[in-house]
């Protein structure tokens, strides 16, 4: 079975936009809190972003199987949890900046390892999330 | 914290609207919308980081724009999901192109933004 393509071409709905905005705020606050907890990592491996991008990818894979393939969950689950919380919790801009700053600090091996491990890890995580949800969540009864 | 939440709400909305506009006007198998927001957000974050480093931007505002808006505008989870989707559809060239453009692009965009204001 293939991962379905997301349909995003319907009309804009106010409750969907609100769910995206609220979820986005929640996801960023969680990311902010995790970043504060782990402290600055200017000289080393950016653990907070690394953990966020992998865990968020795993959860998004599972969520989209449940919502899109299995047709389960609240109507706004995808907008709030998927586009909002997980979309905002994971981030490409910090990943790009952290990699660039490691290169700037003359640590090319660490920069390459961080960029590569995040990419491979996130792809494996999303695959794991998709597979796990397909195995665990049955199709909704009609 | 309030600025992070506000920036993030706007960032997530901007990402959603970009995906909506691309899906409506230019439907494509290739995830253009995610690439666009990831590059723009990385460029902006690089500039904000540089501006905050030399004190040109107050810390609270820099956190609101950087952690909030840029962090929420850009995304990794949708990028990994879209890549998996392309692989499952056997669109390997598109998947590889998306990976290279997002990964190399976000680093180069952050570097460009940083160089702009550093």
List keywords for this structure.
heterodimer; A: 142 residues; mainly alpha; B: 118 residues; 5 helices; globular
SSE arrangement:
The complex is a heterodimer of chains A (142) and B (118).
Chain A: H1 14-38, H2 47-69, H3 77-89, H4 93-104, H5 108-136
Chain B: H1 2-25, H2 32-53, H3 59-73, H4 77-88, H5 92-117
Helix pairs in contact in B: 1-2, 1-3, 2-3, 2-5, 4-5
User: What integer value in Å does the Rg of chain B equal?
Assistant: 15 Å
Give the terminus-to-terminus CA distance of chain B. 26 Å
Shape of chain A: globular
The largest β sheet of chain B comes out as: none
Mean pLDDT of chain B: 96
Secondary structural class of chain A: mainly alpha
Fraction of residues in helix of chain A: over 70%
Number of strands of chain A: 0
Largest interface: A-B, 57 and 59 residues
Note the total helix count of chain B. 5
Number of helices of chain A: 5
Radius of gyration of chain A: 17 Å
- Work out the oligomeric state of the chains in this entry: heterodimer
User: How many DSSP E strands of chain B?
Assistant: 0
Largest sheet of chain A: none
List low-confidence stretches of chain A: none
Characterize the structure shown:
The complex is a heterodimer of chains A (142) and B (118). In chain A, 72% of the residues lie in helices and 0% in strands. By secondary structure, chain A is mostly helical. In chain A, helix 1 packs antiparallel against helix 2 and helix 4 packs antiparallel against helix 5. Chain A is globular. The relative contact order of chain B is 0.20. Chain B is an all-alpha fold and 118 residues long. The model of chain B has no long low-confidence stretch (mean pLDDT 96). Chains A and B meet through helix 1, helix 2, helix 3, helix 4 and helix 5 of A and helix 1, helix 2, helix 3, helix 4 and helix 5 of B.
How would you summarize what this structure contains?
Chain A contains five helices and no strands. Chain A has 142 residues and is an all-alpha fold.
């Amino acid at each position: 079975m293939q991962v379905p393509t997301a349909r995003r071409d319907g009309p804009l709905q106010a409750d969907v936009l609100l769910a995206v905005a609220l979820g986005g705020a929640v996801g960023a606050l969680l990311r902010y809190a995790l970043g504060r907890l782990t402290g600055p990592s200017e000289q080393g491996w950016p653990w907070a972003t690394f953990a966020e991008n992998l865990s968020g990818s795993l959860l998004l894979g599972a969520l989209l199987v449940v919502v899109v393939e299995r047709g389960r969950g609240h109507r706004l689950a995808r907008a709030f949890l998927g586009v909002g919380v997980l979309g905002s919790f994971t981030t490409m801009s910090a990943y790009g900046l952290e990699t660039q700053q490691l290169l700037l600090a003359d640590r090319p091996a660490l920069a390459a390892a961080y960029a590569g491990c995040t990419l491979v890890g996130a792809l494996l995580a999303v695959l794991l999330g998709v597979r796990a949800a397909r195995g665990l969540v049955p199709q909704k009864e009609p | 914290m309030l600025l992070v939440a506000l920036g993030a709400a706007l960032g997530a909305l901007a990402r959603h609207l970009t995906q909506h506009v691309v899906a409506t006007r230019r439907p494509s198998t290739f995830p253009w919308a995610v690439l666009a927001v990831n590059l723009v957000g990385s460029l902006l974050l690089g500039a904000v980081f540089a501006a905050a480093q030399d004190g040109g931007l107050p810390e609270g505002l820099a956190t609101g724009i950087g952690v909030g808006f840029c962090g929420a505008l850009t995304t990794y989870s949708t990028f990994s999901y879209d890549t998996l989707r392309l692989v499952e559809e056997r669109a390997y060239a598109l998947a590889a192109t998306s990976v290279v453009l997002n990964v190399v692009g976000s680093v180069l965009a952050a570097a460009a933004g940083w160089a702009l204001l550093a």
